[in-house]
Amino acid sequence: MSTARVQKNTAPAPALLNPRTLSGRIELRTHSIVGLATAAVIGMRIDLPYGLRVGTVIAILLIPVWLPTFVRIRSAVVFSLIGVAAVVSGVVLTSIHSINHASTQSDTLSRSVMIIGLIASTGALVWAARAVGVGRMCLAFSVGMVLGIPFNLSDQENAWRFTYSIAIGALVLTIASLSGRLWVQLAALLALALVGAVNDSRSNSAMLLLAAVIIVWQRVSQSVIPGRRGIGSLLSLVVAAVAVFLLVQSAILEGYFGEATQARTQAQLDQSGSVLLGGRPEIAASTALISEYPFGMGSGTNANFLDILSAKMGMASIGYDPNNGYVERYLFGGAIEVHSMLGDFWIWFGLAGLALGLMSLVIVIRGFWVRMRDHALTAIYAYLTIRFLWDLAFSPAVSATRLLPLILALGLVPLLVRRTSETDDSHAASLTTVPWKERRG
């Protein structure tokens, strides 16, 4: 039986709507249309001034619609409160450090708006998933991402890596997951990994291959070890992740993915002894800054000369030459950017930002665990989880938050179902642990 068909999934009706009446059916249809449209617009990521996006504005306007659903999830409430605390903390820290640092008010505003938008967008997507089902919500979001490509064009030479890979990949994997067939999901993952590999998208290709390993492992273990599994399952997945990483690295170094990719990977190994450190020297810069400012620096604070010197020394300690203009132009050209979502949150919003990143991790891992436990992992969910873990450590917060509302919503939906089952038995019958795809017959 397909992993996507393990459990029955009907799109659950919002509370208090009676689908047996004409008004109830009309209102249900309206909820479905609004839910799909909202998910698509959030996925499009159309920018407005000061960090606002069209999807954020719509999600905020829909607060009266999605808030009653969202507050039923304890983790969602905790996440939201931490997010609000992070915004306040970022403003306060900026004010404190203004004594010996320059600051940029527009950065304070845009980064505060980013967090508020993250909360609102996640809440809207949780409600949309309840209104139309998780699979349809994911499909609408990924279609929106593809439609939003013209609004997010990059001037980088590698268009696939920087512009198309995530949007098209999410759409292809969502469609493959909705098919409910393991071979279709594997074919999609392997095809996308191959395209990424020949376009020097090494990290994303490795994520896709690991997602393929996970869903195959799930199918095999489902047959060999029926029922729910324990911590050994997660440990075996960690081993699989390390194996895939080493396999991809070895294939690159052997030249299977082109000479340019081979040369760049070898240079990173020679430079720092590690592909991760060589490819992400910003880790050393963020570690140096956080050690200097463990309570954070503020969402609008600019680095001073001593901060830049400290970051350069940290990068030099791993064999990276920081005197190439990159540190001054990108990392500290304006307000600080350390190319790590967790690092950015910590430096911008202090301990509340660190807590926000860790709470996101808890939500995503718990959602992954629930689906793995229930043999309900799909290609898109496995990939999004791996992508999140990478972004948390190695991607700028601004770009990492592109997919964050979606993966957070997917992690929160099972908790909504459990909470609903505890408090509303009459409605719980129409909800499922993983409302991904309707099973017919």
TrEMBL record:
Keywords: Membrane, Transmembrane, Transmembrane helix. The keyword Transmembrane helix applies. The chain crosses the membrane at residues 50-67, 73-96, 108-128, 165-198, 232-252, 345-369, 376-394, 400-417. This is O-antigen ligase domain-containing protein. It comes from Agromyces atrinae.
